[in-house]
Structure formats: structure tokens, C-alpha cells
Amino acid sequence: MILGMSDTADQAERTDERTVRERRAACYREARRSLSRAGFRGTIRERLTDLVEHAPGVHDLDDRADIYGDRIVAALEERVAGLLGMEAAAFFPTGTMAQQVALRCWAGRTGNPAVALHALAHPEVHERHALSQVSGLRPVRVTGAPRLPTADEIRDLPEPFGTLMLELPLRDAGYLLPSWEELTDVTRAARERDAVVHFDGARLWESTVHFDRPLEEIAGLADSVYVSFYKSLGGFGGAALAGPKTLVEEARTWRHRYGGAVFQQFPTVLSALVGLERELPRLPDYVRHARVVAAALREGFAAAGLPWARVHPEVPHTHEFQVWLPYEPEVVAEAAVRQAEETSVLLFGNDWDRGGPGLAFTEVTVSGAGLEWTADDVRDAVAGFAARLPGAARP
């Protein structure tokens, strides 16, 4: 096959991107300092060793293994229902399945398959139209603005809907959360239209600092809530759907129909219990320190004289946020990797995406490893990163 010039260029670009990802993965494992060290990036041996070390503290390992959702799975479900202040919860292998089942059940109960949601919501962006293609639901976009929907937008939506789905935080808009007053107004507006409210709470665990409310009070604004066990808690995978007992029982039936009645799930469930025990209590500290890191990043960019840089949101709502810079993604990705290779300091460990012509953004996560960084450490790291951008003097 003969490749044209454009094909050859595209292939070269993909090869360069793959090479940078491989180098970054090596840096992630070997760097002396980074703002987070996600467990999923570890080796199988590391993951199993960590589980064996911490599992005895969260469940009796002499208990018989689960079969189709009993024993340890039921224990996790009870724990989650209690944390969220709900009547019951059901464990699911994936969040995509959990939410489709929840929304399908609500559609049957309300008699309306329309689901009002944000244009950046996970089902719209990351699930290949699963709501409509698999579950017969009809997504209705409330807004595409980079913020959560407002109460007026819910009231003025020009067609009826059975369920309002809110992603908290809204990841693709910068891990954004509304204010508590805005959230209560939006849920009230949905109920004024005889709709139920479902929270896509994959990362709801980390919202308590922003709302200054306990989890059960936040979840209590919704009729049902989905939570993830790996996005913030470091589990192997898995999700839970929590809500009224009758809804959860119906969801278990649909879980089976969707292929989610897994024979044994104890390794994943154990990792979820470890995450609830170990990471959940630390998330507020991560969120508070993310604000310190974000402020220091802004100060560092200003001191480095970058023509334009933005931390979004300026004060992070969770322990994750975005950084935007006026460069092509491959340029800033290379600078970040070179800094880590040359100094063993990995400031930006995630992919850089294109935000527009000459504009790139990445996501920053501050977790346990990041708590070791002072504001001065962050500013120094920014200076080293900026010095590796085109046109800058080498450090």
C-alpha cells in the first residue's frame, strides 16, 4: 500500500504520540516526585500486593467467596447505601451499565424515556450513544455551556422529560460543581416538572468540601445515585447504584439481563472496600491541597512570563482540575516528559488534548503523593517546565 503525504504525516504523528505516552508512563513509574500516583498505573504484582496488605482490615478473609452477588458483595452494597443515606444499593461491574439500568427503570416508572442531561455528560461523550442504542432512551440536551444546567433552563426546556441526570462533578467542563443553592434549585425545578433526579456521581465522593455538606445530604437531593469505586477511590473497577429499595430490586433484574450478574467479584469488591476505608477519608485533604497547588501553578506561570495560561477552575471544586496553555499539545507533552526524564519531577502526568488552534489542556489530579508538595515546590516545577518550552532558555 502506498501512503500519501497526509497519510504519512498522520502516521508519524500517531507514532510520536505513542512514543510520548510510553515515555510518560515510564516517568510515572520512576519519577521521584509527582502530584498523584494512581494505583491503576501499577503492575499486576503491585496491585495484588497492595490488596493483600490492606484487605484484612476491611473484611474477614475467612468468609466464603461470593457467588452471584452475595456475601462480600452484599456487605459492600450495605456500606454504600449507608454512606449515601439511601435505602439500598446494588453493585455493578461498570458505571455505564449502572446508569443505563437506573435510567431505564425510571423511564418505566415515569412513562417517559426522555432523559434531560448536559451535552458534556458522560453518556453523551464517552458511551457511543448507549442510552439510545441499547436502552431505548432519548437523551435531551439541556445546555452545552461549560457549566452545570440552571434551574431556569430546566423549567424552560421545551419538551417533557422523565428524568434529569446531573453529572457531579461535570468532568469534561473541568470537574465543575454548582453551588449548593444552585443544585437545590435545579432539583426542585425538575420535580416541578414531575421528573425524577438521578446523579451521575462517579466522583461524588470528592464533592463534600465544595458543598460543605456530608455525602448523605448531597445524595439526598436525588432519587438515585451512581458512584464509582475506581475513579477517586483507587479500586480495581466497579460501581454502585443507590436509591429506593424497590428501584434497586428492579435494577438487579436488569443487571442480570444486561450481563452484569458476574459469578465472583470479590477481588474488585475488596479493592472497593479498601478504597472506602483508606481513600475516602483523605479526599477532603486532597481537595484542599489541590487549591494550594492550583494557586501556585497560576503564580508559577505568571512568573515564567507565559503569554497566556489558565487554571480552570481557578479555585478547584474537587482534587482534579484543568490547565490550559497556548501551545500545540505535542509541544507541552514533550516539555513535561523531558522535565521528568531530566529531573525526576513529573508535574503534568496526563495526556494533553487540543482545545483549539495553538491551544492545549490537560487534567491535574492531586492525591496522596501531591500532599508532599509545598507551594514553592509547585512554583519551582513550573519554572523548570516553562524553561523546556520552545524559545525559553534551558535551566
Automatic annotation (TrEMBL):
InterPro entries per UniProt: ArAA_b-elim_lyase/Thr_aldolase, PyrdxlP-dep_Trfase, PyrdxlP-dep_Trfase_major, PyrdxlP-dep_Trfase_small
A Pfam cross-reference name: Beta_elim_lyase
Record's GO cellular component terms: cytosol
Stretches assigned to the Aromatic amino acid beta-eliminating lyase/threonine aldolase domain: 68-298
Gene Ontology process terms (BP): glycine biosynthetic process; L-threonine catabolic process
Any one Gene Ontology molecular-function term assigned to this protein's record: L-allo-threonine aldolase activity
Cofactor(s) needed by this chain: pyridoxal 5'-phosphate
Keywords from the UniProt entry: Pyridoxal phosphate
Keyword Cell inner membrane attributed: no
Family: Belongs to the threonine aldolase family.
Protein name as it appears in the record: Threonine aldolase
